[in-house]
Design goal:
The chain is of the alpha/beta class. It is built from 14 helices and 17 strands. Strand 11 and strand 12 form a beta hairpin. Helix 1 packs antiparallel against helix 2 and helix 8 runs antiparallel to helix 9. The termini are far apart.
Length: 416
Amino acid sequence: MYPLIAFFIQKLCAFAPLRDHIISRKVAKSQRFEMRLFFVLMIGITMIITSCVGRGQHSVAPVSGFSDSVRVEYAQGFTIEKHGGITLLTVSNPWQGAKNVIYRYALCPKGKEIPAEYSQYTIIYTPVERVVCLSTKHVAMLSALGKTSSIKALSGTAFVSDSSVRKAVEMGLVADIGYDQGLNYEKIISLNPDVIFAYGVGGELTGSKARLAALGQKVVFNAEYLERTSLGQAEWIKFMAAFYDCEAQAAEKFNAVRDEYLSLCRLVKDRREKPKILCGLPWQGTWYVPGGKTWMAAMIADAGGDYIRKENTSHESIPVNIETMVHQGRAADLWINTDAARSLDEISKVDERLSLVKPFQTGAVYNNNARAGVGGGNDFFESGAVNPHIILKDMIIIFHPDMLPEHHLYYYMKLE
């Protein structure tokens, strides 16, 4: 790609003497003709260069001249920029294993004509009024913004924790449109959504989301779950707010959460004793644990814990055999996030070797499913996305019981 760009730049520079010669000519008519030729060539070269950037990745070269960039402090998966009343969003590598994948969206106020230079972006007119959410985390962010009435369909309505959305489901105002390859495309199209908020776990270009896009639907990828910090994940509320023209409201809410979270971090920063933390539970013979660069690993550290897999540099979940984790678990002080288990007995039924883990034997096992619903949903993975300060409080009193005496466990519960 770059040699091609260099070639055209070289040709453009070589054309400069001819341009100067044309400008210096005395005949106005000829001058105007040659100047038009020059600028037509410039535009043509720019279009060729732009078409070569990100080919096959649904991305185009950014438009120059952006101003008034919206501040993004912690999130690494998206950017926001404003230019001439249009909000430009980029989402980078929105699923595990994605590399050099960029999606670009141009949000245009309703009634405003979209400039031609954004024609290769996914154009979405705002504020949106009808949306489909494929993740309950999207529900939590819209709830924090007071925009749940815009939700017209969900993937798995039974798993939603938000009370207002559950009521809307019961009243038939929010439809269930299935999952992944089982999505009800006809139902989605009939709802005529302004946008579909999606997430990816791999190979999305050939999956159900690609089919939705081919059917003319506006699919927007969210990648909050891949953020390396909990504040980075929570900051995606700014991304969601852009579709509703309420960025200032989102920034105010995020700033309040950020300030409390950082205050809690300072509170435990100087604690010398850091309990060793085991995390997760095996599934079908494999133990998937948070990589050392995930937001969960970062939060354990922020709460004054010593995560036993912190040396791993992955920012995704990684598979580890049960034997290895049981061996490491014998040195752990606390065990958290044990999937759907609600008792020690349920853990031992997964694999009897898990009873050898030290926290199991000492009764120091805590799970994040205290707010699990009857349909199997877990509010930790819903509202927890916008309440990292509450999760941090839970972790702090689990890791350091002498701290935060006024706080009671909210997302976590001790297993007996």
